[in-house]
Amino acid sequence: MRQAMANAEVGDDERDGDPTTKRLEARVAELLGKEAALFFPSGVMANQAAVWMFAARGTEVMLDVDSHIVEGEIAGVAALSGAQVFPVHGKNGVMTAEDLRRDLRPVSRYSPMPSMVCVENTHNTAGGKIIPTSELRAIRAVAAERHLPVHMDGARLWNASVASGTSLAEFASTVDTVMVAFSKGLGAPVGAALAGRRGVIEGAWTARKLFGGAMRQSGVLAAAALYALDHHMERLAVDHDNARMLASELHDVAGVRVVPPDTNIVMVDLAPGDTAARVAAAAAQEGVRVAQWSATRVRMVTHLDVSADDCARAAKAMRKILNSHPH
Question: Which of 230, 155, 223 has its CA nearest to residue 193?
């Protein structure tokens, strides 16, 4: 990948375009079945560009309460677009069409009007859960009743496609715009893309410039993403296998609940009285890095830099740590 970056043909993406970046954008648009795509420095910026285009000031963006746009983007919807989020609480942990319909406000001059709907696939906080196209189409139908565009935070859509066998284009057909990230499971150092209708992506260029995301010789970064698409996509199945192995090794620890992984994220809800701070610190002592997702939940993510043997060692260490807490 680094050799591909060093050898990248470059131009000036801010002026008349970078040839390698153009190839990446065309590749992504084709994979997602959209008219056009635009390369961004980050998925957060791409998500926020989509919101900026669709959400007028003083309106509401309808999305899952635990979505990344709510939890991980520092109130960007309010700060950058002057809109507010309406966090939808899913009855089963992830927003469904039924949940969206329940929470959409009746039309009233006294209430903020919704301007768009956002979905996330895979759903990070739910443990890398795949949202099937049947549910996405149902959400799209509810949104259409109110003439609302739908944006997908598809940072890990690659994982959803490989794990489910559903094509990227089929997933993307359920939304107006979709963001995909190259710097997660695909292993590129930087970058994301936003795809949609050509006119919308033209608007996204303005948003990217406004947010400070204009780049010059961006082909150096785009080359890494192209390499990742060529060499790292199908191997995501290995990460999913490793995640299932991790989960199976921990599921019978007393008092612990492991969320069955759809893809490469393993969420572990700790036994009563245990804390994520204790578990993470103890794991670090064993040479295993886990994230403190909440006070009582830790997250483990498999990826191309950890082998099956690494995951087996991590599972053994985590069993010991989880069992060391007095239940």
Answer: 155
CB 111 within 8 A of CB 88: no
**What single string gives the DSSP state of each residue in 53-73?**
HH--TT-EEEEETTSHHHHSS
Model pLDDT for residues 234-285, shown as the tens digit of each residue: 999 999 999 999 999 999 999 999 999 999 999 999 999 999 999 999 999 9
CA distances from 294 to 16, 62, 201, 279 (A): 46, 24, 36, 12
- The set of residues, in sequence order, having a beta carbon less than 8 Å from that of 145 and lying 6+ positions away, is none
Residue 129 DSSP code = B
Give 27-64 pLDDT, tens digit per residue: 999 999 999 999 999 999 999 999 999 999 999 999 99
- CA gap 44, 48 in Å, rounded: 6
Q: Is the domain defined by 236-323 classed in CATH 3.40.50.1000?
A: no
Beta bridge partners of 268: 258, 298
Backbone angles phi, psi at 273, to 5 degrees: 90, -20
Domain 2-231 classification at class level = alpha beta
Cα 179 to Cα 50: distance, rounded to the nearest angstrom: 9
Residue from 69, 74, 59 nearest 95 by CA: 69
pTM: 0.95
Domain residue limits, the chain: 2-231, 236-323
The residues with which 58 forms a beta bridge, in sequence order, are: none
Rg, the chain, Cα only: 20
CA 295 to CA 277: how far, in whole Å? 7
CB 257: neighbour CB atoms within 10 A?
A: 13
Distances (CA, A) of 261 to 1, 90, 122, 163, 228: 29, 19, 11, 11, 23
Report the sign of the C-alpha dihedral through residues 44, 49, 54, 56, in that order.
Answer: positive
Residue located via tokens 């009746």: 106
